[in-house]
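Example complex used in Figure S2.
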Amino acid sequence: MLEEHGVVEKYDVVVIGGGINGVGIATDASGRGLRVLLCEKDDLAQHTSSSSSKLIHGGLRYLEQGAFRLVHESLAEREVLLMKAPHLVHPMRFVLPHQPHLRPAWLIRIGLFCYDYLSRRKTLAKSRFIRFDPKTNPLKAEIVQGFEYADCCVDDARLVVLNAVQARENGADILTATKCIAAERKAGYWLVRLENNKKQIVEVKCKALINAAGPWVAKVIEDQIKENSPYSLRLVQGSHIILPQIYTENHAFIFQNIDQRVIFAIPYLNKYTLIGTTDREYFADPDHVEIHKDETLYLLDVSNRYFRKQHEADQVIHSFSGLRALADDAHLQPSTITRDYKITLSIDQDRQLPLFSIFGGKLTTYRKLSEQVLTQLGEFFPQMGPSWTEHQVLPGAEQWNGVEDLVYQICQQLPQISPQLAKRWALSYGTRIWQILHGASNSIELGAMLAPDLYAAEVDYLVAYEWAKNSEDILWRRTKLGLQFGPVEIARLDHYLASLSSETEQN
Ligand SMILES: Cc1cc2nc3c(=O)[nH]c(=O)nc-3n(C[C@H](O)[C@H](O)[C@H](O)COP(=O)(O)OP(=O)(O)OC[C@H]3O[C@@H](n4cnc5c(N)ncnc54)[C@H](O)[C@@H]3O)c2cc1C
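Predicted assembly (507 residues):
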C-alpha cells in the first residue's frame, strides 16, 4: 500500500517512459493544456528509441503481411514529420536490387504501386525501375537491375529529445533517472510513487496514468500497478552493425534475404554504412540487450552476398540492439508478428482513473499514436484543447530556410569553425543552435574544446536544456560523437561534466 504523506504535486496525467511514445504523448497532452509529468528511469531514448533503423517509413514489407492500416498511416506521417522536423528527418531513396529467384518482379511492382498511392505524397518521389551503372554499382556484377522508391531517415534519439523539449515548453515536468516504482488508484486519484537514482522517493497524484514503458510495459502493469496485462508481450531483438562506408552514394539499399526477411544498408554519418536488422526472440533482461555473435554473422553474410566489398567480423566498428515490444498475436516467427500498435485502457468501477498502456508501435507513427491516446483521454478531460501536433513544428524548425542556409549563417558568424561542425549543429539543433552559440562571434567564446569539434558551450546546453547527465547521454544520444571519440576524449568530457555538477552542488 502506498502511504499518502509527502504527496508533493498534482497532475492531470503522469506518463511512464521517456521513449518516443511517452514523449509524444506528453507533448501532445501538455499542448492541450493538461498538467503533465513524465518519468523515465534512465535517459530519454536510452532503450528502443535510440536503437532503431532510423527510418521514417511506410514499411514496404508490412504490405505482404496485410498491415494496410499501419502502412497507410506511416506513409502519411512521412510528410508530416518532414514538415515538423526538417533538420532531423530527410528524404532518402531506397534501392531494391531485383533477383528473380527471390520475390518476382510483378509482386514488387504491385507493392510499390500501393506504396506510391496508399497515401498523399507532396515531396517524396514515385518509385521506378532502374538499371545499375556497372561503373559505379557497388553491388556484385550479376546484380544489374532493381527498383527505387522514397522513404525518410531520422535521428531517432534527437526526435525523442526534441519532443521532450517541446513538452517542457508546454509546461510539462520531465524527470529522467526517475523510475515509477508503484501506482495505485485511491478515492478519486492515482497515487504514483517515483524513485530517482539517488534513492529519493516522491509521490504524485494524477487523474490519468499512461504506461509507455516499451519493453517493460507488461512488467509495469503487473509489478507496479498490480493488474493483469491485457496482452502477453513478445520481445523481439533487432540488431545493427556499423561498417566503414561501403559505398558513397547517398541512398540506402533494401536487400531481400533468402529467409524472406529484408535487410537495410543505410549511409550513416558520412563515414559509415549501417546494416540491419535482425529478428530474434528475446527472453533475458531488457536492460542488458546486446548483439549476439550469430546476428553479426547473419548481417555480414547478407552484406557480403550483395556488395562487392567484403567484410569480416573484426571490421565491425560498432553495433547496437533494441527490443521490439510486440503484443503477442500467436505468430510463430518473430519477423511476422504485427508491428502495428495497440492501446489498451483500464478504468475503475466509476469509469474514472484511466490507465492507458501502449504495446508496440513505430517511431514513424508516434504522433498519430499520441493523438489517438489523447482522443480517448478527451472523455476524462472534456476541457482539454483540440489536436494540434500535425501542423506545429518541433523545436529547431522555427524560421527554417533549409540546412544550407543555416550552415551558411553559422559559418558567417563563426568563420573559425569547420563547415562539418556547422552542418552537424544545423542537423542536430536546427535554429536552436543560436541558443547554444549565445551571440558568440569567435570560437574562443564557445569555451574549451573538449574533443575535436565538441566545445564546452554545446555540452553546457545539453546539460542545462536537454537533460544530459553523463558522457554516454551526450556521445550516443544527444550526438553520435561516440563513434569518433576514444578513451582520452571521453575522460576529458567526463572530467568536465564532473566539474559542472560540483559547481551546481556548491551553488
Ligand atoms: C531493431 C529495431 C529497429 C527499428 N526500426 C524502426 C524504424 O526504422 N522506424 C520506425 O518507425 N520504427 C522502428 N522501430 C520501432 C521503434 O524503434 C519503437 O517502436 C519505438 O522506439 C518504441 O518506443 P517506446 O517509447 O514505446 O519504447 P522505448 O523507447 O523502449 O521507451 C520506453 C521507456 O520506458 C522506460 N521505463 C520502463 N519502465 C519504467 C518505469 N517503471 N519508470 C520509468 N520509466 C520506465 C524505459 O527506460 C524506456 O526508456 C525499430 C525497433 C527496433 C527494435
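The pocket of flavin-adenine dinucleotide is lined by residues 16-22, 39-42, 46-49, 51-55, 57, 179-180, 212-216, 220, 224, 238, 277, 322-324, 358, 361-364 (CB under 6 Å). The chain has three domains: 7-47+158-229+339-377, 82-152+234-332, 403-501.
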